[in-house]
Amino acid sequence: MTDWSTDFDLFEDGFVRDPYPVWADLREQCPVITSERFGGSHLVIGYDAVVEAASKTGVLTSTLGTAAAPTLDDFTDPNRPRSIINSDPPNHAGPRRMILPSLSPAVTAAYVPITRTLCESLIAKMGDRTHVDAAVDYAQQIPVRVIGRILGVPEERVDQFIGWVRDVLERGVLFPEQRAIAFAELSAYFADEIADRRARPREDLITQLVHGTSEDGTQLADKDIVGNLGLLLLAGIDTTWSAIGSSLWHLAQRPDQRKQLRDDPDLWPMAVEELLRAYSPVTMGRIATAETEVAGCPVPHGRRVLLSFPAANRDASVFEQPDEVILDREHNRHVAFGSGIHRCAGSNLARMELRVALQVWHEQIPEYRLADPAAVTWAGGQVRGPRTIPVVRG
Questions:
Q1: Among 3.40.50.12780, 3.40.50.970, 1.10.630.10, 1.10.10.10, what is the CATH number of 13-393?
Q2: pLDDT tens per residue across span 366-379
Q3: What is the pTM of this model?
Q4: 3-class secondary structure, 283
């Protein structure tokens, strides 16, 4: 296994399967780890260090990309679609304020019935099979369909959306050409949808962004609508299905905690927050625009800085028994959705999908276990989560 004190590899199989001992060991040495892979980067793993780095938008920019490794993307191109995640002040706040109302708690609550119906239908499709895949048959089917409903796009596009997500976020780091093609296809698709909504408005998020205005009457440019729709698709699908899958993987091994939730269903909101803390999937990148420091560690100009929100959420200086999943944990200021101005705009939607998905599963399938723990497969890199979870029902 790689010596992470002098190098790190987010794709290393052993780390992808179980990163927690690695982080615990490294945190005793330094909250920032350096590697020369992919042109050189720094991995920030301490909670306070991650929060500090996230706040330094003036010198750790998001405008040059947030990927975990170099890509072929040209973020200096003024015509490139840009989202709020790739924008820093002063260009960040205005578009974010326009998007947030469409993802507010009240709006998100309206999607609960369709999410519940979808989850119930997915379980119904399993029929009387005792062996199912909690990731492939369930977790990975939910966010893409919910977001499709929100965007107002046909369900037959689901497989295409999943392909774009995987090409950009999973395979894209190792195969940048594949990532570039997928992003171009995704952008072209949304450009066509925007043109369609201008001519034929509907009750969906694309229409809201096309015809919406900010407080001063400004409208989003088409390229920025494309960028933010792409963000919702890419960030909202892989991250949420990873969170759902990780939670099912965990609970499949903990009949005691399943009973705890059955006996006290009011515990679900706290349990969701704890599962988000323990299995947060996302690591975000920044680029240093000048020489700086993070937690006292020097960062040269031009270096990539990776904010490991999953590692921060296991920091023992902030969370008691950080590697234990405590469903009724009271003090839980996790950063599963990031920190600072780039905190996830879709956090309300993600929380809702996770809660409904887990509640419906456990209503319908209260007893289940891993068919073979060694058969569970994981994806790593920027978004970590299980890709297959064979389980036995009953």
A1: 1.10.630.10
A2: 999 999 999 999 99
A3: 0.94
A4: strand
